[in-house]
## 1
Amino acid sequence: MRRGDAPADEGPPYVGALLRQCLEHVRARIEADLRSAGFTDLQPFHLPVFNFPPPDGVRPSDLARRIRMSRQATNHIIGQLEALGYLERRSARKGERRLIYLTPRSWGMVKVVHATLLEIQAEWASDIGADRFDGFMTALRRFASRG
């Protein structure tokens, strides 16, 4: 196993494993901060529904595609989140399809997630330096835009 500061050409772990490890760290922090803020009724499988951008005014089928779940599984989770007060389905006019909207409770949850992410970014920037972190973020945005 290689040290965290070893040159990139020394072998595993490769980029996929490193990105996954970072994502696991971020998710664990988000879950802990949500629990600390009183959102103890959310389960880890609920969180992908709120991935950026949060689902405010989207069709359930579009959300299912975005979070890579079947429509049936997504509708089940939406139903759970509705019962918990995080989402609501409504239509603008009679006869239109119902869309998913965030509730004030879920906007509060999203605010905690955003604060956690900003905190992690500040910690990482402090750890490696602001210039290196800016370069890291620029590279991530570039790679993410490739789809």
## 2
Amino acid sequence: MEINITRDEKNELEFKIDNPTVAEILRIYLNEEDSVKMVAWRKEHYSKPLSFKIETEGKSAKKVLSDAISKLQKDLEKYGDEFKKAVK
């Protein structure tokens, strides 16, 4: 998976990402954060990567993204453990 940051300011972060599944999961987790004013992604053309944008208020966009990724990782570990127990 490739990610290229195209804009990096305190309350705004834009990047290109080539995986729509990861982009949608990140969007969902970021929307749960109180300091996020806006988060969205769009695909200009099927052959190009997605554009992903985060706007925040009160926290830096990078910090909010980092927090959302940490929460996602914890949830994935929990779901993985539950799945392993279920298939034993």
## 3
Amino acid sequence: MSGMGHQQLASYNRVMEQTAAIVVSYLLGSISFGVVVASLQGVDIRSVGSGNPGMSNILRNLGKKSAALVLLGDGLKGAGAAAIGSAWIGGDFGWVTLFAAVVGHSFPIWHRFRGGKGVATAIGGLIFLVPWIGIALGVIWIAILVVWRTASIGSLVVMGLLVPLVALSGGSRVAIAWASLIALFIVVRHASNIRRLITASEDRVSR
């Protein structure tokens, strides 16, 4: 095989590996721990409360223990997806696979594409990629939830902080670009929450 043929084969293999990493991360993100935890208690969380299988709806309807399990599971799958991209492909590809997991969480193939907003999954991935940023945003998110009892406010605040913090940490242009995409995606997923915040009708956590 000529040198050009070897290069083409190597490029093809690289693309296939990247594609596989993205698909695996999406499928991992598609595991909805909110649906699983609620189902174990005989509840279809998609027909309760806001219908969102995320941590905040679990907290409002099933309590703190169930919410903690969902938060842990969603965070771990984000970290796992980031690890897949970083270890398998290298470079900044962990950001790409983290985004794939966030998309999977939001539109899960296993659960008829009805998923959550992706905040816990994103923060879990950030703890793997840039630990201090992930931990800081996680603390801010939980603190806002505790004080204001409204998860969406915390979600919007931490997504607003994500890109500036990645830039300040010396992140590459690729990392900043993917952080921007993740933040934008999650903010758009909160469109209905933003409308309810404007009209002061957003759901609050009471338990």
